[in-house]
Design goal:
The protein contains 10 helices and no strands. It has helices spanning 3-14, 18-27, 41-48, 50-69, 81-99, 112-122, 124-141, 144-162, 168-184, 186-194. The longest helix has 20 residues, at 50-69.
Length: 209
């Protein structure tokens, strides 16, 4: 299977608009017309509830995970630098598909769950560490956006200083990820600074009143 074909397949996997299809089929709405207008797991939790939101997040993660596994169909030796480079490009193709899904008018989500699935597939220990950072921040603040931003910033710190990944492409990818996540969450950051960001009642009940 040629590299070009598996890159396209990775994009198509990422393009599966989980939140859009679940909102339309199960709830009879288009999630992009509600809440933040995003077709991602965070907005799914807010608009569709915990059960649907959890399902959306799991499938979106699997998109990144499976896209990376397509590298096994390449001629590269597993764990070689070309193999890792291809894994990164496949994962990014899935993330691009999630953000700009061909199956949903190129209007998707921010790609955080798909990005995490990609990292989980490439380096599971790093992914588990990022989950710990994400959950700790979520439990403390109940802000999914702040938790995502914090985990994304932790990503290059873990890669560069804790796990010391030697592949240059992986190091650059980790740094770029942190910048891109912060950039795509600029509206959330503004709302956080003004106190207008919505909290997700995953671990606690909503405050009454």
């Amino acid at each position: 299977m040629t590299i070009a074909i598996i890159l396209v397949l990775a994009y198509l996997i990422g393009s599966v608009p989980t939140a859009v299809w679940v909102s339309r089929i199960v709830f009879g709405i288009d999630i992009r017309e509600h809440g933040s207008g995003n077709a991602g797991a965070t907005n799914a939790f807010r608009i569709l509830g915990k059960k649907a939101g959890s399902g959306v997040m799991l499938v979106d993660m699997m998109k990144g995970f499976l896209a990376v596994k397509l590298a096994l169909f390449s001629p590269f030796l597993v764990n070689s630098e070309p193999f890792v480079n291809l894994q990164i490009f496949l994962g990014l193709s899935a993330v691009v598909g999630h953000i700009f899904p061909i199956w949903a008018d190129f209007r998707g989500g921010k790609g955080i769950a798909t990005l995490f699935g990609m990292i989980l597939s490439i380096q599971p220990i790093v992914a588990v560490s990022l989950v710990a950072v994400f959950l700790l921040m979520l439990m403390l603040t109940r802000y999914v956006s702040l938790s995502s931003i914090t985990a994304s910033i932790a990503f290059p710190l873990l890669i560069l200083f804790i796990f010391n990944a030697h592949e240059l492409s992986y190091r650059l990818f980790a740094i770029a990820t942190a910048f891109l996540v912060v950039l795509t969450h600029h509206k959330n950051i503004s709302r956080l600074l003004t106190g207008n960001e919505n909290k997700v009642p995953i671990f606690r009940k909503r405050n009454s009143g």
